[in-house]
């Protein structure tokens, strides 16, 4: 059981919502077999004892569309994407794309990132888009985010709809990505 503050739209809340996309939000996901092993240590991949099914995931960020900050009075944004795997400590990894200068309407990246994931059942793929051009402490660089369970993803070209900080869909904002599993 986990205690979450539903009044605060923070990262733990977004991760919880992303994890439960796997079962339609019904609230129950069966633990993988290695989590029930008393010898398993979440920090040591050697204790998996072959009960996991590792994968290699290649994520190509192709393009975006209609990427804008919530505060649109600050001009055109220069979007940058952080692609990360969030799971057990030995699977956590992140990459950041280049910032596309002054093009929030249809930025083009064509950047590829590779992840080796030992426990895909416990991992989430997070796309976090922010303005790489923001300046100052009062500026909010957030543009949008999307979080998906790794074991629910399919390979191929995908349009990833972005959510705002309250986990509501942003109108027309999306990323075009290509996922490849090995």
UniProtKB/TrEMBL annotation:
Domain (PI-PLC Y-box): residue spans on this chain: 1-35
Top-level taxon in the UniProt lineage: Eukaryota
Pfam families, sorted: C2 (PF00168), PI-PLC-Y (PF00387)
Domain C2: 32-164
Gene3D superfamilies in UniProt: C2 domain, Phosphatidylinositol (PI) phosphodiesterase
Cellular compartments per GO CC: ruffle membrane
One Gene Ontology term of the molecular function aspect: phosphatidylinositol-4,5-bisphosphate phospholipase C activity
Transmembrane region(s): none
UniProt GO BP: phosphatidylinositol metabolic process; phosphatidylinositol-mediated signaling; positive regulation of epithelial cell migration; release of sequestered calcium ion into cytosol
Organism name: Panagrolaimus superbus
Designated name of the protein: Phosphoinositide phospholipase C
């Amino acid at each position: 059981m986990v205690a979450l503050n539903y009044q605060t739209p923070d990262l733990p809340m977004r991760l919880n919502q992303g994890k439960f996309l796997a079962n339609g939000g019904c609230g129950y996901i069966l633990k993988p077999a290695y989590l029930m092993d008393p010898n398993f240590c979440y920090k040591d991949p050697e204790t998996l004892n072959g009960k996991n099914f590792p994968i290699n995931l290649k994520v190509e960020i192709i393009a975006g569309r209609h990427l804008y900050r919530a505060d649109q009075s600050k001009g055109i944004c220069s979007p940058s994407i952080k692609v990360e795997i969030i799971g057990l400590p030995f699977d956590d990894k992140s990459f950041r794309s280049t910032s596309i200068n002054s093009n929030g309407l249809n930025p083009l990246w064509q950047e590829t990132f590779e992840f080796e994931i030992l426990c895909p059942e416990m991992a989430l793929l997070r796309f976090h888009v922010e303005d790489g051009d923001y300046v100052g402490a009062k500026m909010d660089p957030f543009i949008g985010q999307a979080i998906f369970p790794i074991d629910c993803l399919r390979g191929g070209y995908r349009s990833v709809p972005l959510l705002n900080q309250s986990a509501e869909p942003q109108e027309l904002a999306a990323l075009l990505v290509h996922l490849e599993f090995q």
